[in-house]
Amino acid sequence: MKRRPTITDVAARAGVSKSTVSLVLQGSPLVRAETAKTVRAAMREIGYVYNRAAATLRGSSVGLVGLVINDLRNPFFTEFAVSFQMAMAAAGYATVISNADEDAELQEKLVASMIEHGVDAVVISPTYGDPASVFDPLALAGIPTLQVLRRMDPRTELFPFASFDYAAGSAEATRHLIATGARRIAFVGGLDERSITRERMEGYLAALEGAGLWPLRIEGPTSRAFGRSAVARLKDDYPECDAVFCFNDLVALGLIAGLQREGVAVGRDIRVVGFDDIEEAALAWPDLSSVACDIAGFGRDTAGALRDWLDTGTRPVAERRAPVGLIVRASSGGLGQ
Question: Is the pLDDT of residue 62 over 80?
Fold first, then answer.
């Protein structure tokens, strides 16, 4: 990724001195209107963004990084944000954490604000939308940027991507359900047009095909409320269903609550497995089997990779996948476990 444009670059493009550019940035009336117009045009052409925080950060030993998360209400993403922030703080970096709330327009504004305030780097777990509106300004500004957990921009040579091996985890979970004797296994949650849903379904579909079984699918949001509402869909559309693999733990916990409300014994009448292994998975009743992701370790590793990039210029690999592993609990291993 090229370096960030400087005031010197603006001056060279506009054919004026650095002091003239500084005066334009300050809104000084000493600069002729036509000259100011030329300087601002040069800024747009080379992608220069005025750093409001430069005056206070200049000379400081504390670096500033931006972290944009698609949904901080989800404990999976919150744990990542906390572990990343703490690891960066230990190395002397301050982290600005923002929640895009699955809103593409808000995400665009958050990233633009971080560029304007002069962050040294950005880590983003993106909300789905137009990648160019978010990543092109980062590239133009020369800001090192990592994509994590979700990949929105395919240019991983510019914006390296790190996540978990979702396909391997879903395959392991599905094979486990098959081994318990389940034959009508539904995949519940996630929107099919999103790449992360396709990744989490990939292993599920492969494991079913290997066992000569057919998939059952209920598409929807990745929330606890949707999981609970999906119980009626299962009853109406797939009454023969004997196991459910959920997009994430939130969907699974909602599903379990809905099933229990209907008098269905989870772990005996129907088996349920989630994904992510958030803390609540082990505390629920029955406790939830889940594909475990070491999200705290992933946050620390992401911070380490970013520090290497900033401190030594070592760009992270284009794509990295962290391993996962199934933890079997009562929801799929039987109520006696």
Answer: no
Domain that holds residue 21: 7-46
Cα separation, 55 vs 22, in Å, equals: 12
Q: Can you give the CATH number for the domain in which 77 is found?
A: 3.40.50.2300
Q: Are residues 42 and 64 in the same domain?
A: no
**pLDDT tens, position by position, 244-283:** 999 999 999 999 999 999 999 999 999 999 999 999 999 9
C-alpha 38/C-alpha 243 separation (Å) is 66
* Residue 219 to residues 185, 222, 230, Cα–Cα distance (Å): 14, 9, 9
- Taking only the tens place, the pLDDT of each residue in 162-172 is 999 999 999 99
In this predicted structure, the answer to whether residue 60 has a pLDDT above a threshold of 50 is no
Question: What is the distance, to the nearest Å, from the Cα of residue 246 to the centroid of all Cα atoms in its chain?
Answer: 18
- The DSSP string of 28-63 is -TTS-HHHHHHHHHHHHHHT----TTHHHHTT-S-E
Instruction: Quote the pTM value.
Output: 0.80
Determine the Cα–Cα distance for residues 96 and 83; give it in Å rounded to an integer: 14
How many domains does the chain divide into?
3
Does residue 150 share a domain with residue 68?
A: yes
pLDDT in tens, 115-133: 888 899 999 999 999 999 9
- Give the pLDDT of residue 335: 56
Report the alpha-carbon angle 92-62-305, nearest 5.
Answer: 50
pLDDT value at 4 more than 80: no
Choose one of 124, 159, 194: the last residue of a domain. 159
Shared domain for 172 and 134, answered yes or no, is no
Cis peptide before 239 (omega within 30 of 0): no
Residues 184 and 116 placed together within one structural domain of the fold: no
Contacting residues for 240 by C-beta, under 8 A, at least 6 apart: 184
151 with 195: CB under 8 angstroms?
yes
The distance from CA 148 to its chain's CA centroid, rounded to whole angstroms, is 5
